[in-house]
Every structure is written in structure tokens, then in C-alpha cells.
Amino acid sequence: MGKQVALQFEFQANQTFDSFFFGNNAEIISQLQRLAEGGSEQQIYVWGETGSGKSHLLQACCQQAKLLGKQPFYLQFPKDKLPEPEILDGLDMLELVCLDDIQNIAGHPLWQQSLFNFYNRHRQNNHQLLLAADCPPKYLAFELTDLKTRMAWGLTMKIQALRDDELIAALTHKAHYLGFDIPASVGRFLLHHYVHELPALWLLLEKIDRATLAAQRKLTIPFLKKILAEEQGF
């Protein structure tokens, strides 16, 4: 049995279920909330295109589980530099483990074997696992076939990308969560003239929030242009 590890991951305070715009993903949210509460699903695999909110939802699930007194752990596999496989030692003792961007261990046989061994221990302990990738399990380019098969053992769900007409509603929702209002006309201007990728859009909203708070001004198109002009790259 692996040694017990301390809870060591950084909570992203703004990545909660409340701050996520559901769109057509209400069923996924419901399933993940039940998972965080210790529901009947032992494994959930979510997939979707880059920027669809996978990392946000994994973070939200961990935070919800932590609030309920459980032991969650979040681990992301970066594309450029993977951590050492030993980071998995002891994680099989934790009640909920969330593994993000698992497609990035393709081409790394040692990591795949380590994840396979962890997977078996964690499942034998009857603990829960949340996985995220950019493709369905059958398209994971894993050399270890048994690991690829296990990725499909549980519930698999696709995160639906927001349609263009939903982006304004998502902007309004996110801005309201941050504590300011964004008129529909300003939202349309922002989407049409500047940013359309969601991760960059959310980061920009946080900058807009700070600017409106500092200036004690409502957000208008002229004020938005001023904020963007001060941001490098616009």
C-alpha cells in the first residue's frame, strides 16, 4: 500500500460550480455534484475541446468535495513537462482524485504503467475518480491498451461547447459572479472585436472587473476600449 499523502493542490477560488455557465451541460454538472457528494458513480470521464471548461469543472468538483469534508486531489498533466510518476504514490488512499488532460501521457510508457497501477489500487479501495481529456477514451493514443480500456469503464460525458448566442449569457453570468454588470451591447462588442476563446475571455473579464472597481465606473463600450488599449496585445 502506498504511503498517505497530504492534500497538495492549489484551489482556483473562481472555479466553482456557481461560476460555471451551464449552457447545455446541466446533466454533467448534476453528475459531478453527485460525485463530489460521494454518489454511486465510481468513475466519470469528461471530454471536450480546448477551452470548454474541463479544468474548471474538475476544480469545482474538488472544491465541493473538500467543503463536504472529503479528501480530493487535482492533478493536471501539462503537455510540455510531466511531473514524476511518483506523485501518484499514496493517492489511492484519497476519496476523490481528479486527473486533467490525461491525453498528454500518450507516448510516455512509464507514466501509463504508473497510472495503470494507481488506477487498480484506487478502484480496489472503492474510491472515486474523475478524468478529463480532449477526446473520448477510445481515441486516447495510449500504448498500454489495458489502461485505455479502463478509461472507458465508467460514465463518459462530453462537455458541449457554447454556441455563439450563449456566449453573451455566459459573459453576463461570469461578470455577475465577479460582482459587476456587463451590458449585452458591451458583451457583443467584446466578442465581435476582441476575444472569442473562453479561457482568454475569462482572464480578460477579471481585468475588466479590477478596472471598473478601481475607476468606480460602469462598463460602457468607450470605457471598455480604454481598458483594452491599456492591455498589452490589444
Q: What would a concise description of this structure say?
A:
The protein has 234 residues and is of the alpha/beta class.
Give the CATH class of the largest domain. Alpha Beta
Q: In CATH, what is the homologous superfamily of the largest domain?
A: P-loop containing nucleotide triphosphate hydrolases
Residue stretches low in confidence (pLDDT < 50, at least 5 long) are 1-8
What fold name goes in the CATH topology slot of the largest domain? Rossmann fold
Report helical residue fraction.
Answer: 40-55%
Please, what is the average pLDDT? 88
Major sheet: 5 strands, parallel
Structure characterization notes:
The protein has 234 residues and is α/β, with parallel strands linked by helices. It folds into 2 domains: 26-158, Rossmann fold (3-Layer(aba) Sandwich); 164-230, Orthogonal Bundle (Helicase, Ruva Protein, domain 3), CATH 1.10.8. The protein contains 8 helices and 5 strands. It has a 5-stranded parallel β-sheet, covered by helices on one side. Strand 3, helix 3 (109-124) and strand 4 (128-133) form a beta-alpha-beta unit. Helix 1 packs parallel to helix 2, helix 5 crosses helix 6 and helix 5 (164-178) packs across helix 7 (198-215).
What structural keywords apply?
about 230 residues, alpha/beta, Rossmann fold, Helicase, Ruva Protein, domain 3, elongated, disordered N terminus, DnaA regulatory inactivator Hda, Hda_lid, DnaA_dom, P-loop_NTPase
